Amino acid sequence: MSKRIAIVEDEIELAKNYRAMFQRQGFDICLYSGRAEAEAAFARQLPDLVVIDIGLGDEPDGGFKLCGWLRAKSKTLPIIILTALDSEIDEVSGLRLGANDYLTKDISEKLLMAHVTALLNQFEALLSKPDSDQAIAHGALVINLDRVSTTWNGEPIDLTMTEFWIVKELARAPGHLKSRKQLMGAAKIVVDDHTITSHIKRIRKKFKAVDAGANPIQTEYAAGYRWRSQTT
Asked: Which of 110, 164, 168, 201 has the fewest CB atoms within 10 Å of its CB?
């Protein structure tokens, strides 16, 4: 069965171009031009992946609102923001609201498809049988692979799908340096170094939200990250 991708884009001709592009790759496509229309459809059934523009009709931040709404409904739904806005502030805002990827509209078809395929593979990996060890426990951290959940000192950490894979990859080998490329591979995403850095910043904030003293991820300048050997 082909994967169902929803595209939320208010420029009709551009949306049709995206639809044709994805259909050439065998995807089943649904188009929505506004946030209310999309939310009504998604309340009935979620697609396999959503591509969202930020400006929707008379809502300059409608895509951000839709992204946050979708992430509240599903922790694992792959969400891509595809927009003409290329500022770092907008990218950080999108990722903070739960988007898995933030791309600009000048991206090539080939690279866009690589991002989409990687995120769908990530989702499939979550649904498949987890690793033989059903949990990872290190100090205050416990990762439940069956439930795709993370706790710190017993308090839940609300991680997105991408964040979960990054934390899992770091925590399964405390003290070992993981390059950004390795983290991309573990999270099954295709992004640049800057986006990995944004994900790490957001992960740190989520841990500090439940424990102000939490600092489990160590940065190695220009090399990558490691999960601290001693974390409590």
From this structure: 110
In this chain, the answer to whether the domains covering 4-127 and 135-227 adopt an identical fold is: no
CB 90 within 8 A of CB 83: yes
Q: With CA atoms as reference, report the closest residue to 218 among 231, 206, 209.
A: 231
User: Could you say which DSSP state residue 3 is in?
Assistant: P
Query: pTM here?
Result: 0.67
The CATH number, out of the four listed (1.10.730.10, 1.10.10.10, 3.30.70.250, 3.40.50.2300), of the domain defined by the range 135-227: 1.10.10.10
Longest dimension (CA), the chain: 54
Q: What is the pLDDT of residues 31-54, one digit of tens each?
A: 999 999 999 999 999 999 999 999
